[in-house]
Amino acid sequence: MMSNPHPSGHSGQNRALLVQVRNAVLPALGASFGKVLAGFDDALFDRAEGAGASQLLFLDGMRELRRRREEIVTLFNTHLRKAWDALEAGTVQSAESVLAGQTEGGLSLVPEHVLESRLAVRNFATVLLRDWKPVLARIDRRLAWIGGVAELDADTNPIGAEHIGVAVHEAFSTCDLAPEVRLVLIKLCEREFAHMIGKVYQSLDEQLAQAGVMPEISQPRRAAPRPAAQVPSASAAETGEDLYDPQQAPAWARRFVDRWSQRRGAMSAAESSGYGAGHGEPSAGPASPAVLLEALQELLAQTRHVREDATAAAQVAVGQQRPLSQREMMSVLSLLQATPSATLRAAVGEDGESLAQRLKSEVLSGATQLGVDPSQARLDPQDEDAIDLVGMLFDVMLDERELEGRSRELIGRLVVPFVKVALLDRRMFVQKTHPARKLLNSLAEACEGNTGESPAERVLMGKVEEIIERLIAEFNENLAIFLTLEEEFRDFLGQHRRRIEIAERRAAETQRGQEKLELARTRAAAELEKRLAGAPLPGAIADFLRQPWSHHLTLSLLREGESGEGIDEALALADTMLEEVAEARRHIVGKLWLQTSQPVLRKVFASVGLHGEASVVAIDALHDTLQSIAEARPELERPLPELPQVALPTPPAPENPAIELGGAAHAQDFDHTDADRFRHMEIGTWLDFVDKDGKVQAGKLSWVSPISSRLLFVNRRGVRFCVASPEELAVMVRLERLRPHMDDGAFDSAMQGVIDRLDPQTATLH
């Protein structure tokens, strides 16, 4: 919970209007929730009929809802009332803090079914925010104005989408429901309850405007009218002519066509015939599929002699050879698809060998199985272009993506099928919705960085392998198989992403726990060092402070944060003990040493597993040690008894950085503007991390530590792979190890690399 001061000149809280709004809105929301809840019985019964083995779970859920219906509505209302009470008190309550349970303390992990429930209500809140965004934005401002707080947002508006999501979570929190039943109920709220909430929002917005609360925001500016959306015709869909908006085209296409157009423009100025609009220039926009294909063909033609030089020694005079027919090409490729040669498999596994060159050699040698003399055959130039494009596409993908081991092998098995697609339908290179292209993007995303360490990763890799096996077995010359497999895999990924989001939440919780532990250990160590800094202490006293007391203080800090009753009690005990050592050194005889501290001492020893008589023996050892100092009789001093072996908190394992910065990087050697940009970066932003070998891994900002301000990045499976400060990220930028993420998919990212290799100005052909 946090307080927002009133901004300067603010009119302050309008208590009467707040009460009026409360009386109008909270009962309406509670009544709406009760109404939809009453209809969930039928919905669960319908689910039970088709739930198979889970039927009893849904029937039990029906009985639980009937038994606890009033309690469920009460819990829903209670949360909203508490959130509203906070606003009336001049503070605001964070829905995220309530949902994350930040007041619980400790390091225990949240059960998976609770994480799933939290995720489901967050999705519910997202739907509300999406559907009622304009009206909620106005309600945020109006409620802040009458509540006397600086601002309200999605997280702090007491009747906003986030708090309603938390209220739904709290409503079902005490119910004994199977996880799948609980998720169904939250989904039903999303479907049935959201519209009723929207009506309450609209009514409140109108009432506040009529009451004179910021009436000027009631009529948002109208956006300029847009032309009616054009639906592509059937013929356009059949020909694959995507309605390419130059601003929406992939980055590689825009950059490439810009360069190509400039060269064509220079040629046009130099030649009287030219390529202007009046001389047959296509009328499509600069990034249209037709122009893009023409540009690619021209670039391939310009660089064909460079690519042919690599295999010139193996060629004979072109005039003595005939090109392989398409039927022969497809037959050879089908053989390679079913049983790829050992040399082709080796080329997939090696970074240095060009897949394009290996593919062309394999096709020519494979033609012998059809009775073709390879010395009398050659590739048709257009077929060779297709092989070159696909080969370079996979070369770039395998070089730059984090594809190792089994992932690399599986993606490599797609090379031959994609050559066949390129021969059958060259629009694959320019049609952004092409099913083969979409399938490759999804499979590459699933494989990238997937080492199969977790059960979820192994399940995902198993599905990838299944999809690829089916493609290889079933793809002849009918492209429909790509559409079928892409839809199936997309559905699977939809289910898998829920596990990813749970893993992401788990990663954030683990990082939060580690940082709380690190902070607690650092504070405990500092408090211990402060008390040991003076004259050397007797052995038993020093051992007590270093072991059981330090352990007890660390646990208290973990439970209570920076301050709390347990922390104050532990610090006071240490100070009292040091005072008694000082008194003993002044030879005060006859004092009952540590008498007043015995209850706290027993608590400290209990925290390390010393109870009952054993703790009495330990306290007596401390007493006798102080008595020996006071009487100047060292023979009375006793050590502490042997303490149980306790699992003292250990510091978190050093973070393995995603990027090795190298010895040349210094902490001060970065642009402070970059660091500031990272400090204010939104959760959910993706960045590309580039390692020393040029491998690229996308990372999503998942969480920012309120303790250290470090940023946690997760990979596409929700697994933590980088935790860094804004300054460290700025150093990565300077070293060109970090860059904005272009979410064009694996296909388009690889195509940019292909264009760079083909471009005569930057060609690095393999």
Tags for this model:
globular; Thymidine phosphorylase; DUF1631; 766 residues; disordered N terminus; mainly alpha; two-stranded antiparallel ribbon; five-stranded antiparallel β-sheet
Please, could you describe this protein's structure?
By secondary structure, the protein is mainly α. It has four domains: 216 residues, no CATH class; 219 residues, no CATH class; 98 residues, no CATH class; 87 residues, SH3 type barrels (Roll), CATH 2.30.30. Helix content is 60%, strand content 4%. Helix 12 packs antiparallel against helix 17. The longest helix has 53 residues. It is globular and about 115 Å long.
Q: How would you sum up this structure in a few lines?
A:
The chain has 27 helices and 9 strands.
Helix/strand layout:
Layout: E1 2-3, H1 15-38, H2 40-49, H3 55-88, E2 91-92, H4 95-100, H5 112-131, H6 133-147, H7 161-171, H8 179-210, H9 234-239, H10 251-270, H11 289-309, E3 322-323, H12 326-338, H13 342-349, H14 355-366, E4 377-378, H15 381-400, H16 406-412, H17 415-424, H18 435-447, H19 455-474, H20 480-532, H21 539-560, H22 565-585, H23 598-607, H24 612-630, H25 672-679, E5 686-690, E6 696-704, E7 711-714, E8 720-724, H26 726-734, E9 738-740, H27 745-758
Parallel strand pairs: 3-4
Antiparallel strand pairs: 1-2, 5-6, 5-9, 6-7, 7-8
